[in-house]
Design a protein that fits this description.
Layout (H helix, E strand, L loop, with lengths): L1 E2 L7 H11 L7 E3 L5 H10 L3 E4 L5 H11 L12 H7 L3 H8 L1 E6 L2 H5 L1 H5 L6 E4 L1 H7 L13 H14 L3 E6 L2 H10 L3 E4 L2 H25 L3
Parallel strand pairs: 1-2, 2-3, 3-4, 4-5, 5-6, 6-7
Helix pairs in contact: 1-2
Length: about 220
């Protein structure tokens, strides 16, 4: 998933990432900055197969989001898949509507209150929880791997409601342990940490281990 909302990525830098991804069997997704048709359509034209849209709060916003992702008659996506057609073939237009994944982010009290209506939107594939923003919405500090109510209750409610509507349930996680718990609850799409957090965490561990060597020497009687 290329993060264009909070990650330091724009459309231009995303192209090189998509080119690298194309050399593997990985399916490219993008979390766009906002529910805005221009960037959604440009990322689909660039070759992403899934779009995650942040801050979807009600049925109308979700319907607009879904419409931006699909060609007529399912939506209003404009035709011009410059890179997508090169990567996926000249018959891209015939297959695109059946290959695109749409995930609406549920992050606010309003979205939770409108959950059934959002999940009822035709051609929406699923929902994806942003636990940090949801924590903020309920007066908690922004965090992942939440076990506090009402956020944890919402997490359990969302996966249950998604199953009722035949939709995918997704969530962002801070650790593999929590991600496994979410899979056990029924979540089918889990993202864990980020490249930035993984690299900084690894670097911090190296520094910690080196400091331990210094501490051992300083405490030695030699």
């Amino acid at each position: 998933t290329i993060d264009m909302q909070h990650g330091i990525n724009d459309h231009s830098t995303s192209i090189s990432m998509l080119q690298a991804i194309a050399n593997s069997p990985t399916i490219p997704f993008a979390r766009v900055p906002w529910n805005e048709p221009g960037i959604i359509m440009k990322m689909l034209d660039a070759g992403t197969c899934g779009i995650i849209a942040p801050m979807i709060n009600n049925k109308e916003e979700c319907e607009r989001f879904v419409s931006y992702c699909y060609y007529s008659p399912l939506g209003q996506r404009s035709f011009g898949p410059i890179r997508a057609q090169l990567v996926y073939g000249l018959d891209y237009i015939q297959n695109a509507n059946s290959q695109i994944i749409t995930l609406a982010m549920i992050e606010t009290k309003e979205a939770v209150d409108n959950l059934d209506e959002i999940l009822s939107v035709e051609n929406l594939n699923g929902v994806y929880i942003g636990p940090a923003d949801m924590s903020l919405a309920y007066g908690l500090k922004p965090q992942f791997d939440v076990k506090e109510d009402p956020v944890f209750s919402n997490i359990k409610l969302i996966v249950s409601k998604a199953k009722e509507h035949g939709k995918i349930a997704g969530i962002h996680n801070g650790t593999t342990e929590y991600a496994k718990e979410m899979i056990a609850l029924g979540y089918q799409f889990v993202t864990i940490s980020s490249d930035y957090r993984a690299m900084s965490s690894f670097a911090q561990n190296i520094v910690k281990e080196m400091k331990e060597i210094k501490e051992i020497k300083e405490s030695s009687s030699y």
